[in-house]
Design goal:
Layout lengths: L1 H10 L2 H18 L13 E5 L5 E4 L2 E2 H20 L3 H20 L1 E2 L4 E2 L2 E4 L14 E2 L2 E4 L4 H11 L12 H10 L1 E6 L2 E6 L11 E3 H18 L5 H17 L11 E3 L11 E3 L4 E3 L4 H12 L8
Antiparallel strand pairs: 1-2, 3-6, 4-5, 6-8, 7-8, 9-10, 11-12, 13-14
Helix pairs in contact: 1-2, 2-3, 3-4, 3-5, 5-7, 6-7, 7-8, 7-9
């Protein structure tokens, strides 16, 4: 949606706007929590189909994904407002706030960080699922720790008037710096960066360069937001580490950025050359997400805000 809306702004072609509206309408029709008993927001999606080819919805909710939805719907409201469509703008703003309000309920003020989201009551614990938080309706807060629960939400919401003063948005970034930072040695070099989780689910420890780029860009944005240089030294450090990974990390090509670098990763057998997380095993090979976030971090671009 954000890419389509950006094209609409740049070209004036409403075809892009209409396509973004189509996606937004699908999200609201299929994923909005209308029960009124839980934390609100939007469900994670679908597991697939049952034997009757009916969609099996995943009633879990992601803090990160709701932050993304807030950004997309807010951008859509902005363009509708600029076009003079005030009723449509107001509707999309309300739908955006449903996502944003969910995110803010996931903030743990005692730790200064965002919980991962919610899962339906009765969901058993598993990697990435820590169903021990407060229950509201059928929603139980998933208290697991993930980098992007803090980075994406900050990029999407920290500058929004509705949420800007609700918390100190430097807190989740300080939490990220103290919780997810990793240092590994590979190919005779020391690398510093971040992983999506504090420790891998199995195998060697490592750095995910996608999430390192996210953290750098979020620090840049928060410093801009507060007109401070709180994170300037960390920004310089990790930008240099990203550049080192591009040129010298095992299995790189000198152009793109490898997705992960593991402790002793150059000596591991091929089957172990990926960083294990609850959702994927991130390979020590050049990756699109890592490369894209490295570019965004290098240029200081927040992809969740329209220019």
């Amino acid at each position: 949606m954000l890419a389509l809306l950006d094209d609409c702004k740049k070209t004036g072609d409403v075809t892009y706007l209409n396509d973004a509206i189509t996606i937004g309408n699908w999200i609201t029709a299929n994923l909005e929590d209308l029960t009124g008993t839980g934390y609100g927001g939007y469900y994670a999606g679908y597991f697939g189909y049952d034997s009757n080819m009916h969609g099996v919805i995943n009633f879990g909710k992601s803090t990160e994904n709701n932050g993304d939805i807030f950004a997309a719907f807010t951008a859509l409201a902005s363009i509708e407002s600029n076009l003079g469509n005030q009723n449509a703008a107001a509707s999309w703003t309300n739908l955006a706030n449903a996502a944003g309000d969910f995110v803010m309920q996931m903030f743990d003020s005692s730790k200064g960080r965002f919980n991962a989201g919610t899962v339906p009551a009765g969901t058993p614990a598993s990697p990435g699922i820590c169903p021990t938080g407060t229950q509201k309706g059928n929603d139980v807060i998933n208290v697991c720790d993930f980098v992007d629960s803090n980075t994406f939400t900050t990029l999407a919401m920290a500058g929004a008037p509705r949420y800007n003063s609700q918390i100190d948005w430097r807190q989740p970034i300080q939490y990220v710096l103290s919780t997810f930072a990793q240092t590994v040695t590979a190919a005779g070099l020391t690398f510093q960066g971040f992983d999506i989780v504090a420790t891998p689910t199995s195998g060697a420890n490592g750095i995910s360069w996608e999430f390192t780029g996210q953290v750098v860009e979020t620090m840049i944005y928060v410093d801009q937001l507060y007109a401070q240089t709180t994170f300037s030294s960390q920004i310089s450090l990790y930008l240099a580490q990203i550049q080192q990974a591009q040129t010298s990390a095992p299995f790189g090509d000198g152009l793109g950025l490898v997705a992960a670098t593991l402790q002793g990763g150059d000596t591991l057998p091929p089957a172990q050359q990926c960083l294990s997380t609850p959702f994927q095993c991130i390979p020590e090979r050049v990756g699109l997400a890592a490369t894209s976030w490295a570019v965004l971090a290098e240029q200081g671009v927040n992809p969740l805000l329209l220019p």
